[in-house]
């Protein structure tokens, strides 16, 4: 039987979360930082773009119709990264994550055979992340979505060890999706904040997971990197060289390229040559179809974009859906 076509990178907009944070202390400062990082031209274009896509971002019927047009059978739906709100204090952060988890689960419950969901955890409060992951799994979600860092904390921070341990123990998917780049105003023109910033943040976050030994300590961890892992997979030669020649780069047990086959990556790289290289580096069993539905930086026809890479037919079908179907199947039933 042919595996369903599964898109692991699709978003939902949650008005419940927006209402929760409106007018809260810290929200205005966070919006101001976002404005500085993106610049006025990007904000104007993005605002209009999101308004045009509110239907498929919030309405299940419109989402399913768009999936049918794209030939997608199943979506793994994650909250818009604009809902992270890593500035929030403990009480608000807990409420944001639990509200997002419940609302995403409710959205997916309208079509459970076609929609699976991911929740959120408050990276700014590592001790609350375990509780939030528990809550997400308890809501029936397949795991959680996280950013590339929290203010003052990288993903290599030892405070996250209990979170990684629980994610590995439960088999929860951790979808790594950056939001905002710490290069700030250097990227505030020409939408560099996204076209350059997102791949940079992916590469930095994954490097922290690799070099710090997180993946050594938690070999069952299931991390899926958005945007094909950013710049990292195609530049692992430099990381491997540093690991070989510099003792201060030896935080992990193996050279960094080893870990490309311990992670999963979506296919959203916008270039068939890069996609073929990603499959070569990570393995055809570690790449998953991704569209960034329904945003303008996504792929309107992700299957066609995958087909353009001209992969061997078994690899094409693995990326199209076979790998994701296996990843979304509980371990005890596999």
Automatic annotation (TrEMBL):
Per the record, a Pfam family? Amidohydro_2
Q: Does the keyword Magnesium apply?
A: no
Task: Return the GO cellular component terms, semicolon-separated.
Answer: cytoplasm
Q: Where is the Amidohydrolase-related domain?
A: 6-328
Q: Does GTP-binding show up as a keyword for this record?
A: no
Q: Which processes are annotated in GO (biological process)? A: secondary metabolic process
Q: Which keywords fit this entry according to its UniProt record?
A: Lyase
Q: What is this protein called?
A: Aminocarboxymuconate-semialdehyde decarboxylase
């Amino acid at each position: 039987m042919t595996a369903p076509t599964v898109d692991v990178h699709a978003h939902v907009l949650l008005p419940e979360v927006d209402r929760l944070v409106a007018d809260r202390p810290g929200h205005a400062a966070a919006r101001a930082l976002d404005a500085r990082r993106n610049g006025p031209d990007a904000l104007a274009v993005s605002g209009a773009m999101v308004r045009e896509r509110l239907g498929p971002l919030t309405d299940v019927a419109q989402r399913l119709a768009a999936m049918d047009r794209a030939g997608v059978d199943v979506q793994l739906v994650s909250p818009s990264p604009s809902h992270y709100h890593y500035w929030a204090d403990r009480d608000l952060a807990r409420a944001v994550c639990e509200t997002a988890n419940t609302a995403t689960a409710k959205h997916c419950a309208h079509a459970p055979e076609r929609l699976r969901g991911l929740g959120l955890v408050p990276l700014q409060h590592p001790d609350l992340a375990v509780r939030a992951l528990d809550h997400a799994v308890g809501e029936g979600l397949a795991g959680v979505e996280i950013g590339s860092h929290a203010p003052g904390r990288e993903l290599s921070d030892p405070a996250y060890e209990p979170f990684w341990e629980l994610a590995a123990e439960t088999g929860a998917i951790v979808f790594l999706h950056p939001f905002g780049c710490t290069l700030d105003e250097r990227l505030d023109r020409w939408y560099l904040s996204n076209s350059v910033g997102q791949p940079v943040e992916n590469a930095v976050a994954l490097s922290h997971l690799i070099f710090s030994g997180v993946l050594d300590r938690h070999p069952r961890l299931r991390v899926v990197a958005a945007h094909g892992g950013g710049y990292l997979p195609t530049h692992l030669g430099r990381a491997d060289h540093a690991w070989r020649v510099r003792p201060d780069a030896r935080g992990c047990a193996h050279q960094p390229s080893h870990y490309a086959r311990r992670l999963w990556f979506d296919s959203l790289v916008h270039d068939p040559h890069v996609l073929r290289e990603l499959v070569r580096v990570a393995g055809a069993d570690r790449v998953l179809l991704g569209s960034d539905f329904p945003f303008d930086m996504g792929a309107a026809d992700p299957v066609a974009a995958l087909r353009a890479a001209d992969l061997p037919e078994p690899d094409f079908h693995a990326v199209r859906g076979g790998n994701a179907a296996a990843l979304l199947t509980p371990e005890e039933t596999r």
